[in-house]
Amino acid sequence: MDTSIRALVLHGPKDLRIETRSLPPPAATELQIAIRSTGLCGSDLHYYNHGRNGDIIVKEPLALGHESAGEVVAVGKEAGGFEVGDKVALEVGLPCEECESCNKGRYNLCKSMRFRSSAKIFPHFQGTLQERINHPSKWCYKLPGSMSYDEGAVLEPLGVATHAARRAQIPMKAKVLVFGAGAVGLLCAYMAKEAGASTVVIADIDQGRVDFATKNGFADHGYVVSTKRGQSIEEKLAIAKETASSISQIAATTGKTMAEVDVVFECTGVESCVQAAIYITKPGGRVMLVGMGTPIQTLPLSAAALREVDLCGVFRYVNTYGPGIELLSKRGSKTPNPRTLITHRFHGLQNAQNAFEMAARTIDEEGKLVLKVVIEMDSKT
Length: 381
Hints:
Strand content: 25-35%
Distance between the termini: 21 Å
Structural class: alpha/beta
Oligomer: single chain
Shape: globular
Order of helices and strands: EEEHEEEEEEHEEEHEHEHEHEHEHEHEHE
């Protein structure tokens, strides 16, 4: 028998509606999951504010949300290993599992990927801001009893940072720079420390975010990036060099200055930051392109090519949920707590519009920092 559920559906820019939908029982290999916590992502905000994310346009009503955890409320007859009442985190991208990328283990690059809340395919794959969804058990990960639903939702952005850190191949005692102190940037800093980096510096235009990163142990030092922008390419590159030079003078844990760094996680997508990242990376180092920003940029490629600085793309994640659960479960008292990234919580779909408006801000009405906003639901909402 079908179940009547409510869903938060985007019909156009800033046009969110709560609608009633009919959900069938889970298929044999599926779980039916009551969504309990969903974090709002930058792509959600792009869809909400503009009805599009870059060149990807919403073409039909779309439920947003993909950073989610929930409670199993029904189990398909072939979905072994799960019981009603289990807490699970959801990996919401479903690859074809047949193409070359999938067969090589790089399923994040599958051209036929169906990703919840993305309008890339049509019909769109509906997101997780619904009271319940059916999802393949293969892509559900059981959470330990000590882990909250909010922490389960954080596993999705943590997966991006984990994948970036893997591709970065961070040397032990490396010096690492992170551009962008949003949720993903902070988690990249976190993963750099987990990988054994000796010094992590985080840079952002927002003093509040930089202070948060250093006070909560995500980074050893912070740097506030100037908002000065040049007009000509020569002026822009000169400013990027100034930024790189200033950061290079920050003291490292060795007692010396940072100088050039081994790895840069570029989490803004801003042209000036990518330029500065190339300049500050040491010969043979890596710039990890994590941020999705300006699609066409002018970069000092000779400064990269002549010093064999690798520019590495990062797209979503591969096989990160299991390690993420283990990492958060065993987190020591002296390591940063990714759960602190959640600064604002809104309860129920009826408050979702306020949640989206808050997620677009850097500080709230009381002057408090806004980082990660989540929408929480229980059986009564």
